[in-house]
Amino acid sequence: MTSVAHLLADIADIGRDPRGGYSRPVYSIAELDLRAWFVGEATSRGLDVTTDRNGIIWAWWGRPRDGAVVTGSHLDSVPGGGAFDGPLGVASALDAIDVLRARGLSPDAPGARGLAVAVFPEEEGSRFGVACLGSRLLTGAIDPDRARNLTDTDGVTFAEASTAAGLDPAHVGRDPEALARIGTFLELHVEQGRGLGAIPDGPAIAVATSILGHGRWRLTIRGQGNHAGATLMADRHDPMVTAARVILAVREAAAAQPDARATVGRIVPVPGGTNVIASRVDMWLDVRHPDDDVTAATVTRISEAARAAGAAEGCEVDVVEESLSPTTHMDPALRRRLSDLLPGTEQLATGAGHDAGVLAAHVPSGMLFVRNPSGISHAPEEYVSDDDAARGTLALADALAGLGGVALAGAANGRDA
Ligand code: GLV
Ligand code: MN
Ligand code: MN
Q1: Dist. CA 125 → ligand 1 center (Å)
Q2: 402 phi and psi, to 5 degrees?
Q3: Is the CB of 352 under 6 A from ligand 1?
Q4: Residue among 199, 198, 249 nearest 219 (CA)
Q5: Ligand 3 center–CA 190 separation, angstroms
Q6: CA-closest candidate to residue 55, choices 3, 114, 127
Q7: Burial of 244 (0-12, 13-18, 19+ CB in 10 A)
Q8: End-to-end CA separation in angstroms for the chain
Q9: Helix axis angle, 332-341 relative to 386-402, nearest 10°?
Q10: 108-136: pLDDT as tens digits
Q11: pLDDT greater than 80 at residue 414
Q12: Which ligand places an atom closest to the C-alpha of 79?
């Protein structure tokens, strides 16, 4: 087993979902266990670990300083997610530090920019609804009061969950000092589509070109709760019927628009009973397209269809935007540099969202993807072979060294990055 595989094996039992895969929502017992695991691994490597006021864990190899090369990812997951989305980037970062150290490189050597690993909370937005919440808070992309008041499905606020996790939510928000520490951000991530796996005998690693623009909307459909037996079909105002029509409208709107993706992955009838006509349905819509205007037009089309379907059933429909991230084109100079440093790698656009996309508006940010032959993600079938994970570590180590995060500790060493 390679070192990354060993690291991932150590956490393989944390947050397993009995329905399949992993459910590791931010600040749940599982995610806190993973954070503790990371702190232990980083500390045992002599890294200097701190958690900042936005819940981001920083592990510095050597002296913390402005303009350093920072790598990292996240440890939270979607419900029933795979083993690699997030943890692969964190484990590879730790492993890359071992590789760089074994090569005689140091972040404190003359000419080195410094190196840190960052672990971002709530990248998936699966507990509080807003994806990349940690990096949004860090960069000021979300109002701190709004973040504090976000609630999970049990009505627990982000502020309450943060407090329960031992953090102080009073000071979440834009953190210029922490941001200034990042000179370049590089996130390694499992590839989440069919990009690399579909190239026979192709490369295992790709450099990201862009991150697809994406947003989330909450639809609330209000009808009349009633009795399943005593209410004649003609007398019903059933929001579940409207919801069914909305789901079909979502598929049709996306299918009519080349390159669009639109999903309803979560729907909650309220109060939810077999013999109860729901009084309300909450549903969440995820829409993505390279052109942000097309995303907006697709959501408008879906909203109009939803209101028409609601009117036909005597239901009211509200559509509220919960988050929106424009398409991000990764820093061109950094992309070129990464491709030069990692010959033979592919160039790949991603349809998934990442903290690197949020950070890209503030600092040069790049991503490396590791082949996932299943082509499946956000599901248990997500897969990276041990050999490809090891290739990922080496690519990350080469990139971190090539970007100047570390340099040769002693001229006598004579080895190259
Ligand atoms: C996160 O992985 C997302 O793309 O939603
Ligand atoms: Mn991810
Ligand atoms: Mn994900």
Answers
A1: 8
A2: -65, -30
A3: yes
A4: 249
A5: 9
A6: 127
A7: middle
A8: 24
A9: 120
A10: 999 999 999 999 999 999 999 999 999 99
A11: no
A12: 3
Amino acid occupying residue 3: S
From the CA of 350, the nearest ligand is: 1
Ligand 1 atom nearest to 352, measured from its CA: 4
User: Could you read off the pLDDT of 256-273 as tens digits, one per residue?
Assistant: 999 999 999 999 999 999
Buried b (16+ CB within 10 A) or exposed e, 42-59: beeeebebebbbbbbbbb
**Confidence label for 162 from pLDDT (cuts 50, 70 and 90):** very high
Q: Catalogue all structural domains in the chain, each as residue range(s) with its CATH number.
A: 4-212+327-408 (3.40.630.10), 213-325 (3.30.70.360)
**Does residue 355 line the site of ligand 1, with CB under 6 A?**
no
Q: Which residues contact 138 (CB under 8 A, 6 or more apart)?
A: 52, 54, 56, 174, 175, 178, 179, 359
CA dist., res. 219 & res. 369, Å (int) = 33
* Sign of the CA dihedral with 187 first, then 189, 192, and 196 last: positive
The strand pair at 276-277 and 226-227 is best described as antiparallel
Ligand number nearest to the C-alpha of 78 = 3
The residues placing their C-beta within 5 Å of ligand 2, an ion, are 85-86
Quote the ligand 1 centre to 278 CA distance (angstroms): 30
Cα(94)–Cα(7) distance, integer angstroms: 9
pLDDT confidence bin for 410, thresholds 50/70/90:
confident
**Residue 14 CB–ligand 1 contact under 6 Å:** no
CA distance 51 to 194: 35
- The CA 78 to ligand 3 mean position distance, Å, reads 6
Q: Is 34 exposed, middle or buried (0-12, 13-18, 19+ CB in 10 A)?
A: buried
Q: For ligand 1, is residue 215 a contact (CB within 6 Å)?
A: no
**Residue 124 — φ and ψ, nearest 5°?**
-80, -20
